[in-house]
Amino acid sequence: MSKTYDIIIAGGGAAGFFTAINIAEANTKLKIAILERGKETLSKVRISGGGRCNVTHACFIPNDLVKFYPRGEKELRGPFNRFAAGDTIEWFEKRGVELKIEEDGRMFPTTDSSQTIIDCFNAQVKKLGIQVLTGQSIQSLYKAEHHWKIETQNETFIAAKLVMATGSNPKMWDMLSDLGHTIVPPVPSLFTFNIKDPRIKDLMGVSAMATVKVKGSKLEASGPLLITHWGMSGPGILRLSAWGARELSDKNYQFVLQVNWLNDVDAEDCDTVLKELKQEHAKKTVSKKSPFDFPNRLWESFVTAAGIAAETKWADLNRNQLQALVNQLVNAEFNVNGKSTFKEEFVTAGGVDLKEVNFKTMESKRIENLYFAGEVINIDAITGGFNFQNAWTGGFIAAQSITGIE
Fold first, then answer.
1. Cβ-count burial of 203 within 10 angstroms (0-12 exposed, 13-18 middle, 19+ buried)?
2. 337 strand-pairing partners
3. Which terminus of the chain has fewer CB atoms gathered within 10 Å of its CB, N or C?
4. Pairing relationship of beta strands 2-10 and 156-164 according to DSSP bridges
């Protein structure tokens, strides 16, 4: 015996809930169900931002906002003009959730708890009569002339319209491929670099502003770099991993990373600064105190790597040692050998080809009455609340289209 609905939302995550709520608010007569394969919904929301839920980012100009999306920059321009960060803040405030802006622009609920977002969503679906069905792993999708037939392991659902909000789920991509969609093969997008190097050994937890490049490539990013027990992490590294997701996958995560620990200072300027220090601090020990804005432990490591003995005075530095120190500071090379997934913020580049999605409606260009929201399509962002913003925007536009609000 099949169950009939007006709209089925596949996926009980951020995008699925947001889409369902916006549909139901626009048309209370519609019968809506969310199908979630797991035992609980909103699991990614729960762990996001270290359990605080990084809801969005305080970037309010659509043309600036799109620049945080390695895949989707062009396509999201229109959608962000309809629903962006400011609209997200207003949406949550209207439903009793206040957000706050942190120094780096990330936005969290004032409670600092992802449970606040989960409670908000659960209260809305309850109030609006949206059915949330867990343990419903979709086994097949069939498109008839006027409806969808969705089979899970133990039930059959019939719906006029189907929203795919299934995130990075290979099984769902296979089904969409069988229906005629092109799937861009998935590769990890946010990850840290595995590096074994004596210069950073025992420096776990040390952080510095740096510019990082992939040698022999145009890939480059700047931001805080964090040394970890397995290599390098931090916003600068994650940014590089996002923009280089495909290229670094092709390299099998084996490449040379060039690090400028002085961020935007070039070799010539660095050389000038070191020569000035040589004169000003002639009688002081080179390794004793970092003359730059990063920890002493890191400075000591560079001095050692430049072949300068521990007790050497500034006055005693020769030309070759100065040059070696310049290289360590502005053009240090590290061999990257593999990657590690960044905490639970697992993001994938890949999914439904963007050319096959109408971004005015979030409807498939290939199949009528099929809509998309969130990471199921080939859009991903750097860390900082941007992936959730894509989920909110896509869900909002799909809901408007489904309910006839253009």
1. middle
2. 254
3. N
4. parallel
Which positions of the chain have pLDDT values less than 50? none
Task: Tell me the two tokens of residue 231.
Answer: 């290599």
| Cα angle 272-274-280, degrees, rounded to a multiple of 5 | 105
pLDDT of 343:
57
The residue written with tokens 């990614």 in the block is: 44
The Cβ-side half-sphere exposure at 181, using a 13 Å CA radius, reads 30
Give the other-Cβ count within 10 Å of 60's Cβ. 13
Separation of alpha carbons 103 and 216, rounded Å: 34
Query: 319-330 and 267-280 are packed helices; what angle lies between their axes, rounded to 10 degrees?
Result: 130
HSE-CB of 296 using CA atoms within 13 angstroms? 5
Query: Cβ neighbours of residue 115 under 8 Å, at least 6 residues apart?
Result: 46
Identity of the amino acid at 376: V
Query: Which tokens hold the place of 176?
Result: 């969409």
The alpha-carbon radius of gyration of the chain (Å, integer) is 25
Q: Which residue has the tokens 């015996």?
A: 1
* pLDDT for residue 213: 98
Distance CA 292, CA 326 (A): 12
Assessment of whether the complete model's pTM goes beyond 0.85 = yes
Q: Which of 377, 32, 392 is nearest to 172 (CA)?
A: 377
Look at residue 264 in the predicted model and tell me its pLDDT.
87
Residue appearing with tokens 């050319």: 355
Each residue of 359-376: pLDDT tens digit?
999 999 999 999 999 999
> Phi and psi (nearest 5°) for 34?
-105, 125
- Block residue for tokens 């990330």: 106
Instruction: Say how many CA atoms lie within 13 Å of 247 toward its Cβ.
Output: 15
Query: Can you give the pLDDT at residue 1?
Result: 85
